[in-house]
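ARCHIVE CARD
SHELF: 3
SLOT: left
DATA:
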Amino acid sequence: MKKYQLLLVVALVFALPIIIAKVILQQQWYQGGVTNRGQLLHPTMTVSAFSKPQTWQLIYWLPSTCDERCQGALFNLRQVPQAAGADNGRLQSVVLIADQQPSLNALLQGLEQYPVDTVLHQQFTQLEYGLATIYIADPHGNMLMAYPLVTGEEAILKQGKDVLRDLKRLLKVSKIG
């Protein structure tokens, strides 16, 4: 009888943690830690126009009038690749332009400009964060993360740091670019 009791105790010692873990996960009592600062897109959207081998892209849709949020986004698009250091060759900032305005040329200096067609406009309006957002796209053209625009100098600088932190982590673990 003692043999069976010992076997039962050993089985419980090994099985009990597994059973407890399964119950905790099924009841959704465990909230896993989040390390990203941006918003993950669910589901991701693939845009073949942004498929560039070995190049991660920061993408922003330029509105017709550039307010404080727009200027902050353009500032971050310029600064983040420079702050990436050795990885800046793997990053590219792209500004999507629906209608060319000569008054915005000074703001767009040093940024890649991409003309927008109706298909691309429809794809972006379907994204859950809309057009007033900085997006990160991987080398396959998958839109992965979103950073909704903010106002205020401190918030803009913090958002730039958040984008840089997430990008550095993505570039570090990336096998595709």
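SLOT: right
DATA:
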Amino acid sequence: MNSSAALLDESLPAPCTPAATPGRPALLALDLGTRTGWALLDPRGHICSGSQPFTPQRFEGGGMRFLRFHRWLTELSQSGGASGGLAFEQVVFEEVRRHSGVDAAHAYGGFLGQLGSFCEHHRIPYQGVPVGTIKRHVTGRGNASKEAVIAAICELGYSPVDDNEADALALLHWAIATAGGAR
């Protein structure tokens, strides 16, 4: 598992890309899953992103990946620097209503439960955004393929390592453009 300092060093492109007006609330966008895509808009208006694996390990119980996810969220939230504040003040996540299989549905539910618990505990507002809304924003089509989303994100100047990171970046750009869905 990467440390939070290492996570923030995985910015795309390097250094973090100025994307928004400095001073806005820090925002975390998540594509929840066994390989969770993430994108973080910091208060200076810079975006960092990556893809974090939570693959079940051999000889560990079924809930360990969710504990690792919670620990990762905690580390990421505490990477806000010397100010001691949280690294993000809002969270948006990809809201999936249909899964390819039972295992994927169970994993998503577990990650969503951990995320909700974390946000409630820290009093961080969080919001799910439908997949079609995210895809429509970044590609113009609500049923766009993974490849189309990756291509659209690459056109914005990023080099995502996988579709999970591309989805998180697309979600973050939706949240920036719509002020978190307020308009």
